[in-house]
Write a structure and sequence with these properties.
The protein is of the alpha/beta class. It has two domains: about 120 residues, Rossmann fold, CATH 3.40.50; about 90 residues, Alpha-Beta Plaits, CATH 3.30.70. Helices cover about 35% and strands about 25% of the residues. The chain is built from nine helices and eleven strands. Strands 3-2-1-4-5-6 form a six-stranded parallel β-sheet, with helices on both faces. It is elongated and about 65 Å long. The mean pLDDT is about 90.
Length: about 220
């Protein structure tokens, strides 16, 4: 279990805080809007109304004792920058800050934020990848070249084993798991035979994956 501070309960902050708590973490939420805090006070026992651009507020939280501090302010980037700066000044262990533009990310990095997230940008890129090619069920970027994809089994592979198809050599992708219904089988053996409706979790370059999915 980790101790987590979420500052800013906009849409993204709300989803983040709820999920972190569902995962068993100890979550404190803060927003300067009383109505928002009141809305979530029943779900989060540690909910506070405060303006975290005030150094005294940040100091009173004892931020160095949190494992993670998230700054998820929506539209007010100046406040986000001030809060992230105060968190680092007061020895927060790890600060994750939300940005909407590259220039915002650069400024957050300069004041010491440990990690920058672009929720809107990342969602847009993920959506574009999914709808750019046929049969992409999910997509997780790893590097500029490689990503993880969830794709349907190629129709010509059904009834054949991984070794018989020689996926890695012929198609330049690696199969890391096979999903059948609600069952996930990680690292399938070379003798695994594909069945209809299998979903494959693969790692590869987009160009190589798209070649396969365009023929599925």
């Amino acid at each position: 279990m980790k101790s987590v501070l979420v500052i800013g309960m906009g849409r993204f902050g709300r989803h983040l805080a709820v999920k972190m708590q569902e995962l068993g973490n100890d979550v404190m939420i803060i927003d300067k809007n009383p109505e928002i805090v009141e809305m979530f006070s029943a779900k989060f026992t540690d909910a506070h109304i405060a303006d975290c651009t005030n150094e005294g507020v940040i100091r009173s939280l004892g931020v160095k004792h949190f494992d993670l501090c998230f700054v998820t302010i929506g539209e007010d980037f100046q406040s986000s920058l001030v809060i992230a700066s105060l968190l680092k000044k007061l020895s927060a262990k790890y600060v994750v800050a939300k940005a909407n533009q590259d220039i915002q990310a650069e400024l957050l990095k300069q004041i010491g934020a440990d990690e920058i997230i672009y929720p809107e940008k990342e969602m847009a890129e993920k959506l574009a990848i999914r709808h750019n090619a046929n049969n992409i069920f999910d997509y997780i970027p790893l590097t500029s070249d490689y990503s993880i994809y969830e794709i349907p089994v190629h129709k010509d592979w059904i009834g054949k084993s991984i070794s018989a198809i020689d996926v890695r050599k012929k198609h330049e992708i690696n199969i890391v798991a096979v999903k059948t219904g609600n069952s996930l089988s990680p690292m399938p053996g070379s003798d695994y035979e594909f069945v209809k409706d299998d979903h494959l979790i693969v790692i590869g370059k987009s160009s190589d994956v798209f070649k396969i999915t365009s023929k599925s």
